[in-house]
Amino acid sequence: xxxxxxxxxxxxxxxxxxxxxxxxxxxxxxxxxxxxxxxxxxxxxxxxxxxxxxxxxxxxxxxxxxxxxxxxxxxxxxxxxxxxxxxxxxxxxxxxxxxxxxxxxxxxxxxxxxxxxxxxxxxxxxxxxxxxxxxxxxxxxxxxxxxxxxxxxxxxxxxxxxxxxxxxxxxxxxxxxxxxxxxxxxxxxxxxxxxxxxxxxxxxxxxxxxxxxxxxxxxxxxxxxxxxxxxxxxxxxxxxxxxxxxxxxxxxxxxxxxxxxxxxxxxxxxxxxxxxxxxxxxxxxxxxxxxxxxxx
Length: 296
Fold this sequence. Notes:
Helices cover 26% and strands 33% of the residues. By secondary structure, it is of the alpha+beta class. It folds into two domains: 7-85 and 152-184, no CATH class; 89-151 and 187-275, Trna Endonuclease, Chain: A, domain 1 (3-Layer(aba) Sandwich), CATH 3.40.1350. The strands form three sheets. A six-stranded mixed beta sheet has the order 5-6-7-10-11-12, sandwiched between helices. The chain has a four-stranded antiparallel beta sheet with strand order 2-1-3-4. Helix 1 runs antiparallel to helix 3 and helix 4 (186-207) packs antiparallel against helix 6 (267-275). The longest helix has 22 residues, at 186-207. 36% of the residues are buried.
């Protein structure tokens, strides 16, 4: 993309709704909710099985890069949305069913459990670490299971308060262009958050005869190397099952979580991917540079 084309990350999905499909009044209501300026119950999360009220601060499910349009409004969408809330991966039970099928579990004999204690404090005996999900094949007294970690993406840059305030005060369409530079923080999401989890859990599950699966979205997976040239679907060839989903635009103006790619990697290969770093774009570098300048 030419250097003179200005782009920024903004909201892609907000409280379960496509951001660009919201009118100004809906955006104002959501902004007041995000800012804590209303006593109304948060909108219900459409992705969780029981659809409870959204518990994520700010309610942003995913973010997306936009071109700057006319009069400081958002323009065309670019690339795929980046999932920022782990609950977004729960749509239609897609990830759990995918792992069950990958493991060869009959769906009618598969059960799931969430946030299962995996570690405990040696001092208090209380849980000190959990596995996000367990997907198990249960047949009588026999049980075979695999763990599942879900990794959404953090973002770096200015907090969202200014964004919510701008959306609260705006009554025009299309929505205003993002107020500040924000971008996915692949490093914090991968090397600092996901890798330590895998280093702790994968070896133990390996000893127990189980695998650990990781659910991420396509932008995250591409940021850590993307699909292997000769990827394996043999569960015996690695420790970690990578389940890569993506958000697909649907005709009604919504986003649907779909399967994109899966492969099996060793813990060592996974760590090499997660430890890798990439150079930021010139645009992002110079935006950050401007905020750091000081007189000579």
